[in-house]
């Protein structure tokens, strides 16, 4: 079955410390992977994607993600967290459907950055 | 350039009432989507439209219908609302079905 797992409901980190939000996936074929962020009462905003090429992908707001094929993971990282990074983060993977491609989203991880 | 817009922002319905959620995008995208977001469940695809003139079911289509009115607009209709349809509904669009999606601000729907 094609799926995405975000094993942590919440991640807590102190401002200035590095952060990691974990994502693992299971899909047929080559994975297209995405990270989105959702601020309170807002829609999802695209952060970054991996389709092919370098395993380290850089995105918006200083975030980056590392694609690891052997571990089927695509963890989101940032070297120095800001309080304003506190939000809900979703990992998504392109899944092959009935003649179409669709995105499957993980359940989300709430990131709380403390001053 | 407004991106993806949705109306209304909030709605309260009684069981059995009907309503249509409107979505429009100004990015000339081919594909459009309707999702619902429920706590702890991420986003679940209700219906999508890969291109103008086509629509297809997603993971949770029961109780919903859609219309791709033109390239810009994609509406979601609840014919007979049920409390289980209480949720936040998001419309999204993308240039292609495998590309990144751009989301609207959402509609918070409560069915009593």
Q: From N to C, what is the helix and strand string of chain B?
A: EEEEEEEEEEE
Profile the largest sheet of chain B.
7 strands, mixed
Share of helical residues of chain A: under 10%
Number of strands of chain B: 11
Given the C-alpha coordinates, what overall shape of chain A results? globular
Give the distance, in angstroms, between the N- and C-terminal Cα atoms of chain A: 41 Å
* Mean pLDDT over the residues of chain A: 91
Largest sheet entry of chain A: 6 strands, mixed
- In terms of per-residue confidence, which ranges of chain A show pLDDT below 50 for 5 or more consecutive residues? none
Keywords for this entry:
heterodimer; A: 115 residues; mainly beta; 6-stranded mixed sheet; 4-stranded antiparallel sheet; 54% strand; B: 112 residues; 11 strands; 0% helix; globular
Please provide a written account of the structure.
- The complex is a heterodimer of chains A (115) and B (112).
- Chain A has 115 residues and is mainly β.
- Helix content of chain A is 0%, strand content 54%.
- The termini of chain A are far apart.
- The model of chain A has no long low-confidence stretch (mean pLDDT 91).
- Chain B is mainly beta and 112 residues long.
- In chain B, strands 2, 4, 5, 6, 9, 10 and 11 form a 7-stranded mixed beta sheet that branches. Chain B has a 4-stranded antiparallel beta sheet with strand order 1-3-8-7, with no helix packed on it.
- In chain B, strand 4 (31-37) and strand 5 (43-49) form a beta hairpin.
- Chain B is globular.
- The mean pLDDT of chain B is 93.
- The chains are: A mainly beta (115), B mainly beta (112).
- Chain A binds chain B through residues 9, 32, 34, 36, 41-46, 49, 90, 94, 98, 100-103, 105-108, and chain B through 4, 40-45, 48, 50, 56, 58, 90, 92, 97-98, 100-106.
